[in-house]
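Example for tutorial group B:
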């Protein structure tokens, strides 16, 4: 298989490249040159947002393209139109954020989506992702378009900082604010499982939208944090704290305490992120590794860096102020 990936040097894109190379595929990475491309690929340089920025893609044919773009929909539109006659299938990494708010009870691929345009420029994230979907459908049609609506992504190469923050916090040790209840269910996708599923789906010729995270209740906040403590081998002491006390202290779920959302206090947000229906993806082979494997491998990757974890410049860093944590815990 000949794969073209638009991006491919960070997080989800890098996981796709690594998976494709392991399969013996021919991989071409189109990127801006800000990060070194993985070894073993053909590297093409260009900036999709610049005039004539797609010039390096003027020639060439591939079986499949994977696009992880998450901003301006017109950027996806321009790439899709340029490649339409030379690519077999367009795999677009979209998001469960495309669904209209509040989330529907079924929370599956048939739920209403936000209004959007493939020609939009500066729009909110949900509209940007839906606009990207429409751009791909316009250029490739429904039969050659695979729209992968992902939820929370964690694992090695993460450049958002959610799981890395928890691991670094556990490594510091001492009393740790653990947001309860311990059995609060979580849903996410390991970036490597995401990559494997997308490439398998491309080979099989799948098309249309697919929600892609683990099964509901794949793990809990308790299992995740306990796995983090074990992986780091620290003396961290998890102090389970009721969500009411956390919220009263002005601590924000998801941002101050990454990944966690209180199910009873914020039911719509919890359902949108940790209650996604993935029956369609499971029916065609979605398989997710245990939380312990994701945590252990992410910690090993963090230790291998020899410095701070990568951080996307367009995302606000996450994590709790140590002083606020200490105040709530009384330490």
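The residue assignment follows.
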């Amino acid at each position: 298989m000949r794969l073209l990936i638009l991006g491919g040097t960070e997080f989800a894109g890098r996981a796709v490249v690594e998976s494709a190379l392991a399969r013996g595929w021919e991989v071409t990475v189109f990127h801006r040159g800000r990060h070194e491309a993985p070894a073993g690929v053909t590297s093409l340089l260009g900036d999709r947002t610049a005039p004539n920025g797609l010039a390096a893609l003027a020639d060439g044919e591939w079986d499949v393209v994977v696009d992880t773009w998450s901003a301006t929909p017109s950027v996806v539109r321009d790439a899709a139109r340029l490649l339409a006659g030379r690519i077999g299938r367009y795999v677009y990494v979209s998001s469960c954020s495309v669904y209209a708010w509040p989330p529907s009870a079924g929370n599956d691929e048939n739920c209403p989506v936000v209004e959007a345009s493939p020609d939009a420029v500066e729009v909110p994230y949900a509209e940007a992702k839906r606009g990207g979907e429409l751009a791909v459908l316009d250029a490739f049609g429904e039969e050659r378009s695979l729209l992968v609506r992902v939820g929370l992504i964690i694992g090695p190469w993460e450049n958002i900082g959610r799981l890395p923050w928890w691991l670094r916090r556990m490594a510091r040790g001492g009393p740790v604010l653990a947001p309860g209840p311990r059995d609060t269910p979580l849903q996410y996708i390991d970036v490597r499982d995401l990559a494997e599923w997308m490439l398998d789906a491309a080979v099989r010729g799948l098309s249309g939208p697919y929600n892609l995270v683990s099964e509901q209740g794949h793990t809990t906040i308790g299992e995740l944090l306990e796995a983090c403590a074990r992986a780091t081998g620290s003396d961290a002491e998890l102090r389970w704290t009721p969500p009411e006390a956390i919220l009263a202290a002005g601590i924000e779920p998801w941002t101050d305490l990454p990944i966690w959302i209180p199910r009873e206090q914020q039911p719509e947000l919890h359902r949108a992120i940790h209650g996604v229906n993935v029956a369609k993806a499971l029916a065609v082979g979605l398989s997710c590794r245990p939380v312990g494997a994701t945590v252990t491998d992410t910690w090993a990757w963090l230790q291998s860096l020899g410095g701070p974890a990568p951080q996307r410049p367009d995302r606000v860093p996450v994590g709790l102020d140590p002083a606020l944590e200490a105040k709530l815990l009384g330490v």
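The mean pLDDT is 97. Compare this with the pattern of hydrophobic and polar residues in the output above.
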